[in-house]
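Lecture notes, part 5. Sequence design as translation. It can be helpful to think of inverse folding as translation between two languages: the language of shapes and the language of residues. The source text, in structure tokens, appears below.
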């Protein structure tokens, strides 16, 4: 509902690398009378382009995205024209407290309806060019508090502090099966194997089934931890506890659960990841 602090429509941009998340937020905002969704962006580069072209008043900005992450998007925006930013985050409890202490606007995933309206009321009250400058200053404090390193300038976010901060948010895999969608933290995935036209995702003792090709699935995975080791197998390198050589240059890998998978000769270059 419109309040005394705003009499105009808020042009709004949604930035999230998950299409289902974008669609869900768009539907929620559709029923809010002073919000006009002017576009959706799948990554940081698209976000920067659309912010420049559409000049939104408000941006819902996912923090963890491939390529340019949410904090780096803010880093590249001009202070004078920067829209109000609502961070979308799956941070742990400690990081969320840092957001709250530093008064940065955020919404924890999955989005709660009441929380959404709370932060929108805050945006309506504070939206201005002056608040954009304040937000950048608060962002510096946030990075310093979570990373433990002093960050005096926005340019310093290019260094180690921003990269360490982003690692705190686990990437998630969206698994759709029979009309149900399940989100699994990729760090929890132990291994993935192909079963005909389906992928079996094994995480924390549960097997999730999804209809997708191995190539399509690889594009959605965090390559820093999940690597293909066979034409039909992907393994989480953090869950490999033993490696045993086999015939013809192949290897058997034993995972934390005791399950064994084979690393084929075709993917022998992956061996360096386990050393």
């Amino acid at each position: 509902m419109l309040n005394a602090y705003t009499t105009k429509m808020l042009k709004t941009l949604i930035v999230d690398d998950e299409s289902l998340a974008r669609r869900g937020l768009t539907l929620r905002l559709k029923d809010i009378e002073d919000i006009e969704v002017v576009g959706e962006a799948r990554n940081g580069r698209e976000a920067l382009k659309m912010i420049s072209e559409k000049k939104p008043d408000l941006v819902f900005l996912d923090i963890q995205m491939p390529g340019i992450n949410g904090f780096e998007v803010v880093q590249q925006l001009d202070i004078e024209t920067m829209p109000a930013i609502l961070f979308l985050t799956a941070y742990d409890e400690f990081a969320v407290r840092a957001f709250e202490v530093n008064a940065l606007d955020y919404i924890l995933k999955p989005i709660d309806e009441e929380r959404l309206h709370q932060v929108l009321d805050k945006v309506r009250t504070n939206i201005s060019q002056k608040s954009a400058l304040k937000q950048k200053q608060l962002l510096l404090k946030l990075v310093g508090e979570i990373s433990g390193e002093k960050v005096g300038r926005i340019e310093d976010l290019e260094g180690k502090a921003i990269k360490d901060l982003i690692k705190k948010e686990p990437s998630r895999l969206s698994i759709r099966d029979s009309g149900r969608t399940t989100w699994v933290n990729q760090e929890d995935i132990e291994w993935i194997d192909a079963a005909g036209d389906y992928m079996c995702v094994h995480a924390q003792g549960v097997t999730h089934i999804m209809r997708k090709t191995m190539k399509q699935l690889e594009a959605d995975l965090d390559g820093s931890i999940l690597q293909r080791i066979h034409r039909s197998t992907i393994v989480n390198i953090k869950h490999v506890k033993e490696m045993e050589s086999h015939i013809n240059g192949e290897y058997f890998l034993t995972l934390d659960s005791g399950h064994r998978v084979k690393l084929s000769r075709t993917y022998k270059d992956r061996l360096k990841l386990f050393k």
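The translated text above is only one of many valid answers, since several sequences can fold into similar shapes. The domain at 10-166 is CATH 3.40.50.2300 (Rossmann fold).
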